[in-house]
């Protein structure tokens, strides 16, 4: 799923409210016709709606503007103008909408859920409302109120069972390609993965779980360096985390601590998740080196060694993941 779109920005505009009518009755047998102007109709809302059949924000990628209808003006005989048609933006479950200040407007948590992200303008009152003992024939009616307008950012946080966490080139994309049908782009340079990839991993007895390859983070990501916050937020939605440290790392435990610290600075609650530490590319290591590396980790944090290329340790890794998910 290399075309996974997780972030779109759209200019939204709700409908203007219709104007109230200032009509005065003109009837053949009533010499002094009073006010009978109706109210204007409400402008259309812009509504975000959950759709369980959507998995990405890709359908919205080329949508630049969304505009709801204006309300109709009021008419004579106290006729209220029709409401402007609402416009719906269908999004996957797990989508968050933010306003231009970055504040969360709403989050879609279930199929069919609707959240108004821009309210239509209220229709103006007709002159019939302004009749009084001292003003029997008001010629005044309210104009409709304007709708809301501005940019809305839609973000989709990945929903996956296990999220892969590691520096660029740790072997995350290679692992995902080895254990699932996902075909992520793989190359030997930093930030190969610019958008998250999802893969369904087959397990024993026709069971499966979803693995997310989250783009590589670097030290300082929590302060917005590199690709920063945009990708760290995906980790919030994963059930467990799988830390990948490559066999050619200079200091294995230190690399784990740097990754752990980035997550802690971004959101300390991330460290409450279950996690597994693994050493990727372990076909480069002999048994003596593996033991030496393992001894650098505390007893409760011993890593699992695997190689995506030779398939060594992959079943053991899947077993450990399954046990964490369902233990």
UniProtKB/TrEMBL annotation:
Residues 160-326 form the OBG-type G domain. Mg(2+) binds at residues 173, 193. CDD domains: Obg (cd01898). Coiled coil: none annotated. GTP binds at residues 166-173, 191-195, 213-216, 280-283, 307-309. An essential GTPase which binds GTP, GDP and possibly (p)ppGpp with moderate affinity, with high nucleotide exchange rates and a fairly low GTP hydrolysis rate. Plays a role in control of the cell cycle, stress response, ribosome biogenesis and in those bacteria that undergo differentiation, in morphogenesis control. NCBIfam families: Obg_CgtA (TIGR02729), PRK12297.1 (NF008955), PRK12299.1 (NF008956). This is GTPase Obg. The gene is obgE.
């Amino acid at each position: 799923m290399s075309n996974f779109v997780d972030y779109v920005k759209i200019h939204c505009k709700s409908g203007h409210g219709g104007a109230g009518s200032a009509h005065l009755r003109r009837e053949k047998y009533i010499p002094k016709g009073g006010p009978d102007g109706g109210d204007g109709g409400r402008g259309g809302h812009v509504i975000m709606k959950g759709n369980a059949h959507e998995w990405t924000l890709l359908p919205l990628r080329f949508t630049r503007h969304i505009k709801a209808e204006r309300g109709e003006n009021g008419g004579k005989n106290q006729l209220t103008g029709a409401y402007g048609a609402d416009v719906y933006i269908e999004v996957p479950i797990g989508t968050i909408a933010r306003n231009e200040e970055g504040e969360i407007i709403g989050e879609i948590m279930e199929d069919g859920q609707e959240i108004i992200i821009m309210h239509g303008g209220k229709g103006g009152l007709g002159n019939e409302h302004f009749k009084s003992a001292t003003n029997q024939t008001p010629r005044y009616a309210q104009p409709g109120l304007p709708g809301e307008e501005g940019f809305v950012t839609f973000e989709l946080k990945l929903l996956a069972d296990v999220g892969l966490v590691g520096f660029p080139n740790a072997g995350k994309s290679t692992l995902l390609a080895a254990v699932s049908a996902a075909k992520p782009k793989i190359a030997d340079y930093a930030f190969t993965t610019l958008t998250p990839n999802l893969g369904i991993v087959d397990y024993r007895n026709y069971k499966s779980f979803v693995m997310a390859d989250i783009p590589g983070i670097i030290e300082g990501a929590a302060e917005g360096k590199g690709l920063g916050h945009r990708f760290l937020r995906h980790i919030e939605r994963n059930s467990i985390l799988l830390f990948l440290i490559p066999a050619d790392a200079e200091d294995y435990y230190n690399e784990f601590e740097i990754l752990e610290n980035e997550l802690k600075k971004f959101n300390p609650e991330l460290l409450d998740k279950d996690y597994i530490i693994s050493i990727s590319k372990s076909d480069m290591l002999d048994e003596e080196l593996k033991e030496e590396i393992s001894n650098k980790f505390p007893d409760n944090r011993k890593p699992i060694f695997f190689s995506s290329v030779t398939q060594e340790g992959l079943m053991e890794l899947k077993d450990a993941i399954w046990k964490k998910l369902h233990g």
